[in-house]
Amino acid sequence: MKSIAHPIGLLVILSFHASAFAQNRFVPNYDESAIPAYELPSALVTTKGASITDASMWHKSRRPEVLELFKTQVYGRSPAACEIQYELVSEKRDAIKGKAIRREVDVRMITGSQSTTMRLLIYTPKSSPSVPVFVGLNFQGNHTVDAAKDISITKNWVRNRNDGKNNRAMESSRGTAAGRWQIETIIDRGYGLVTIYYGDIDPDFADGFKNGIHPQFEQEMSSVPEGERWGSIAAWSYGLSRAVDYFEQDDAIDASRVAVIGHSRLGKTSLWAGASDPRFKLVISNNSGCGGAALSRRAVGETVGRINTSFPHWFSDNYLQYNENENACPVDQHMLLALIAPRAVYVASATKDKWADPKGEFLSCVHADPVYRLLGTQGMGDKRPPAEFPAAEAPVKSGHVGYHLRTGKHDVTDYDWAQYLDFADRHLK
Ligand code: GTR
User: Fold this and answer.
1) DSSP letter string, 115-137
2) Average of per-residue pLDDT values in the chain
3) Domains recognised in the chain with CATH numbers
4) Cut 0.90: pTM above it
5) Which residues are CB-contacts of 157 (< 8 A; sequence separation ≥ 6)?
6) How far away, in angstroms, is 264 Cα from ligand 1 center?
7) 291 Cα nearest atom in ligand 1
8) % of the chain beyond a pLDDT of 90
9) Pick the catalytic residue: 78, 232, 264, 296?
10) Among 306, 282, 287, 286, which Cα is nearest to 296's?
11) N or C: lower Cβ tally within 10 Å for the chain?
12) Which among 42, 130, 241, 410 is annotated as catalytic?
């Protein structure tokens, strides 16, 4: 006998599935009037309730406490610096219309018999020795930042985008990200540029940390509580710090004048690198959003719950506690910027990048300002922080905390670089 599905039963099943689906579907909030009530933890009050009223109290008690909270609750605890070895892989003395020396240097990060190698692509102006540099990770491989035919192509895993197939980088993607790097302008302004493919340090997918740099520290990490172990953002930041270890041995680079820059997830990474390693003298967050510069408690656009679901490998497992529960977190992202103080920090947003919550990124700067002022800088500028969210193309960049909103989408453009270079001229030169 043939069985025939009962039409009413089918309807019930279908509607059950539809409502379950609706429950699971994430609907971002973009409405300012629907932001949940929240109170930001104060950067200047300790966990025990003591007020921080001078710079030495900040450095001795509050800063270490906040740093520890970001390690244990947000990004995870990274291992201590490991040994590095390096090797020059290629050198071109007439790159960028003859204005720059371009080198590829392999930096091997070593623990015992295990190691991970990242390849640094380095541009320095021909004319001046020992220059300040911008260092930043790239998304699709070093060969995508410059169309030159002789830059090596990574053999490591890459994301499948327009320019990658089967998770392998392709010849046809040479130069596809060049617009984001403005190499000639950077060189003309007297800076060097160093970029590293982020997948050299840790491939960007959840696999229980079997690949990339994580496994070589397995033994060291076994004594760290599971919830506090480092995620991928911490691993990428760790690679950036090892790049600075290398700069300290490279005569063409002034390791005391390094700016770290990153876009999106790599902007979250540049902020954590800058917060955890004081050798970065300028820290730039381009459209970093949730888990980066944006205040988590606003829950506008991407939220903690959403990011931990889509990218379970980026943060520590402890961070999961704050899914749809941001108010319980002892820190918010303005305190990440405060960890960088009194070194310079610049946060940039884009009008169409609502997912990253531009206003939340601005408000982080506003709430980091008191720490910058306590440490004797001008914070967001001569005027007290502008309570008003600035208009597009009206950068706030006269103090130690810079901010701009640019017209357009989630990206890094020549407008963004023009602001960063002006800001760097004031803080690195
Ligand atoms: C998105 C993610 C953002 C941002 C972005 C990127 O999918 O939700 O947090 O990091 O990716 O890095 O491109």
Assistant:
1) EEEEEEEEEEESS-SSEEEEEEE
2) 94
3) 71-300+329-427 (3.40.50.1820)
4) yes
5) 167, 168, 199, 203, 205, 211
6) 6
7) 9
8) 90
9) 264
10) 306
11) N
12) 410
